Sequence to fold (246 residues):
Amino acid sequence: MPKKRHLAGRHQPKGLEIIYEDRDILVVDKPAGLLTVGTANNKTNTAYYLLTDYVRKGNSKSRNQIFIVHRLDQSTSGVLVFAKNEEAKFRLQSQWKDTEKKYVAVVYGQLAKKEDCLTSYLAENKAFVVYSTPDSIKGKLAHTAYKVLKENRQFSLLEINLLTGRKNQIRVHLADTGHPVVGDRKYGKPKDAFRRLALHSKSISFKHPATGQQMTFEARLPNYFNEFMDNSQGRTCKSRIAADTQ
Fold:
């Protein structure tokens, strides 16, 4: 993993940790709860807005800008990559199928297979809910590989290799197994007591758009992921994590 560059100057993005930056790319650790890009109801509380302000050094008249390469769900934390020029964006996106993306998730229960590749066609209904379908015309093929890192009676900690990049892919595939991601009220338990989705973008590896050098970036695993696996926490684990809004 490249060393984090020292970023001089007083103007820094609030609420985002910069993992790496050069003239072509900007890699950050996005916290859970922050949108990648704006919506009709929220245009400013986003990684894109904060980083645009950052590269402009607070000057709204500056022409400096960033370009979206990929997205993370609002409730998912971890590594997020932006380009700092249009050429870098196109080069990164053109090699996206060869980009290695690893996630970590906590799911309910114990999976029968400790390592597997989940495959289905994914489609989206009018309510914007993604679901698996056997219809190859209706859906897009998706592959999600996982392996169990730790488990106890209640939860399993998984490392996930995202082999395709469909919307909500990890969440849908794990829900299909009967082991939804903790905190996922959309695809898991509607009355899930955990306020935060236990899904984290752990690392990303790709060739630099300008130099061609293979680069890997990682984001620290939030402490509460390991707390799920600590039996000594008992009932307090659930209350602590439920109160964690970050």
